[in-house]
Design goal:
By secondary structure, this protein is mainly α. β1 and β2 form a beta hairpin. The chain binds heme C (3 copies).
């Protein structure tokens, strides 16, 4: 009897051990799934929501079109035969299984900062995704850009195989924010200007054009950047897709929808704190001097103000203050002050629907005015908005509007 009890106890302990191992494994996979959300792999690798990560999203690059491949564990068309080492080489060096060089449209120059244990969890998760047989030819670039070897030269000039180094002088949450913003979240891929080769240019986070949208300045510059936003306002934007200044549209709507709305509150605050303290920014790159607005007697400003009070003030209010949660505030709005007015012209021409998130399910919409206002009228109203209620920014010409009209017809 004694031995029997002893045996039962032993086998019970054994079950507990396997259960514990299983739950650690489950936690690793669950953590890997969260990392895939932080890294927004789906934005490029999921074209069809019913076949997650089976590839097929086309990406326009300065060199031509690339299609994100199938990264499900299918043996024939996905990563079924890959080892962890193959995966790690891709994420940290941009080298695929067998040694080919990836194009940096896959954000490995940012993912390279990922820690080994995070890469392992992410890999463990990717092994659990349903395998989908879907053949994708990633490289659809024209000659000579279709030659992968050229990427060796690109890497040599543009890519730093770095590890993440926490700064011992910074608090843990700011270091966590740095790890996310610079690495997995790859915010700079859209918000940092590109150099002529498509690598990171000068002026980190000072804004860049992505698919005819302006990814604005997200430095703490009080005039052109988000220095006037509180930490909570930035968290609100990333979590719900909007705050009193702005709603996320275009590529940022995708970022919020697939990624940041699902981040933990700790990670949202870590990212916001890192960005707002300017920890990642070269001081010389952002100019804090606010320019002077155009005089209210300026002919464009006067013509624009009439259109504004007629057509826009109903929603955005006569003093540009908007309505929190419904209509963005145009007064003292960094997006409005950016030197580059493309997003504003685009929104007025074509209208825009803000992102809907779990937290804010019904997205407000901005009507299109392109059918009804001329290029001149749009140039004037945008110039008025850019030089009223604390805003100050260069004028917009009818030619700028005509150019955007043409670009939008091409889409
Ligand atoms: C901005 C778009 C984008 C995002 C975000 C992105 N990828 Fe990619 N990925 C690509 C493109 C494009 C390629 C193909 C590059 C090439 O063939 O040169 C690629 C290739 C890959 C490959 C190599 C597959 C193969 O068959 O060669 C792996 C693995 C991969 N991505 C994993 C990931 C993971 C994991 C994430 C999220 C952490 C991710 N990617 C996020 C665009 C993206
Ligand atoms: C795929 C490209 C892309 C990525 C990746 C991206 N953004 Fe954006 N972001 C944009 C675009 C485009 C806009 C402008 C959206 C609009 O006009 O509504 C924007 C807008 C913003 C704004 C609003 C700024 C303002 O003045 O209104 C903030 C804040 C922001 N992004 C933060 C981030 C952070 C933080 C990350 C990384 C977690 C990130 N973005 C990643 C493209 C991107
Ligand atoms: C029916 C209400 C309504 C009217 C009228 C309206 N807007 Fe908007 N506007 C919105 C909403 C809602 C958004 C946010 C949409 C989004 O982010 O996708 C917006 C966004 C904008 C933005 C982008 C601001 C930002 O921070 O993202 C600008 C600029 C703008 N409107 C200017 C104008 C101008 C100029 C007019 C008049 C010609 C006008 N609006 C008329 C509702 C309106």
């Amino acid at each position: 009897m004694k031995t029997l009890i002893g045996f039962t106890l032993l086998s019970l302990a054994g079950t507990a051990l396997t259960a514990q191992a299983a739950s650690t494994e489950y936690q690793d996979i669950e953590h890997g799934r969260y990392l895939s959300v932080l890294g927004d792999c789906a934005a490029c690798h999921t074209a069809n929501e019913e076949q997650p990560l089976a590839g097929g999203v086309s990406l326009e690059t300065p060199f031509g079109t690339l299609v994100a491949p199938n990264i499900t564990p299918d043996a024939e068309t996905g990563l079924g035969n890959w080892t962890f080492e193959d995966f790690k080489g891709t994420m940290t060096e941009g080298i695929g299984k067998g040694g080919y060089h990836l194009y940096p449209a896959m954000p490995y120059p940012a993912y390279t900062l990922m820690r080994d244990e995070d890469l392992r969890d992410l890999w463990a998760y990717l092994r659990t995704v349903s395998p989908v047989n879907h053949d994708v030819e990633a490289n659809q670039l024209p000659f000579p850009f279709n030659i992968r070897l050229a990427m060796m030269g690109w890497n040599w000039l543009n890519f730093d195989d770095r590890d993440f180094q926490p700064d011992p002088d910074r608090p843990d949450d700011i270091n966590r924010g740095a790890y996310l913003v610079e690495g997995l979240d790859h915010c700079g891929t859209c918000h940092t200007p590109r150099n002529f080769m498509g690598g990171d240019g000068d002026g980190k986070f000072t804004g860049a054009i992505v698919d005819d949208w302006l990814a604005p300045n997200i430095t703490p510059d009080p005039h052109k950047g988000i220095g006037g936003w509180s930490e909570d306002e930035l968290v609100e934007y990333l979590k719900t897709g909007g705050n009193r200044f702005d709603f996320a549209s275009g590529p940022m709507a995708d970022e919020v929808r697939h990624s940041s709305q699902y981040w933990t509150d700790d990670d949202l605050h870590a990212v916001a704190r890192y960005l707002l303290t300017g920890a990642g920014i070269d001081e010389t790159a952002s100019s804090a001097d606010a320019p002077e607005p155009l005089a209210q007697s300026n002919a464009q400003v006067q013509a624009g103000s009439k259109i504004y009070f007629d057509r826009c003030a109903g929603c955005h209010k006569t003093d540009g203050s908007g309505e929190n949660g419904m209509f963005p505030q145009l007064a003292e709005n960094p997006l409005i002050n950016n030197d580059n007015a493309s997003s504003l012209i685009r929104v007025v021409l074509a209208g825009s629907r803000a992102v809907d998130t779990d937290a804010k399910p019904t997205a407000p919409a901005m009507p299109a005015f392109g059918w009804d206002l001329s290029d001149d009228q749009i140039a004037n109203v945008v110039t008025f908005v850019r030089n009223s209620w604390g805003n100050a920014a260069p004028t917009v010409s009818a030619g700028d509007v005509a150019e955007m009209r043409k670009a939008l017809q091409g889409e």
